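Lecture 7 notes: from sequence to structure.
We start with the chain below.
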Amino acid sequence: MTNLLPAYARITAILPCYTTAGDSTLIIADDGSTTTLNTKVRTVIQRLAKSRAVDLTALKNRTKAATGRKNLEPLPIAPGLVLVPVKVRKPRINGDTTTGYINFHAVTAVRTSTNKPYQATITLSGKAEVPVLWTSVTINRQLALTRLAVSSTPYSLNALPARSFQESFAGYSPELLTLAVKLVDVFNEILAIKRQPYS
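Predicted structure tokens for the same chain:
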């Protein structure tokens, strides 16, 4: 399968799609070209990890510990391929994949979408655009969690290039956003505890 795919650093997105063969996967490259595989996203991710001799279970456990996420964790597969999970579709039937992955390195912009039911659009290098069911706030949170995940892997934060897009508000700092994400998680946990009935 790997000979059908672009080089790791050229992959901008791995997305679920429907074809005549059923639930399939669309790979978008940095030049905008696409490859469709008659296999599910999960299988593509497993094969990419295996081709890099990456223990996917250990990688997920490490990024879960770094980010505090129980699922939909970022996946730093290779120095040029850091996969960020995003919800891109509603399933036709139970069990269909709803989550795709974008390459952190390929993100050039995140903006609100007016094309319902999508709430945001992610622009990737090569000018490909991925409509997403999540809000732009949620996507930016996922990007911040990805920075945390990368800090816990052999691919250090220094390996991540400077983002090629600027946030729309003054004083934006990726380091502060990461801290803010952690604080929001703590507040959410406190609120969840307070909502629990006393026994």
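Points to note: The beta strands are 11-19, 22-29, 34-37, 75-78, 81-87, 99-103, 107-112, 120-124, 129-132. The radius of gyration is 17 Å.
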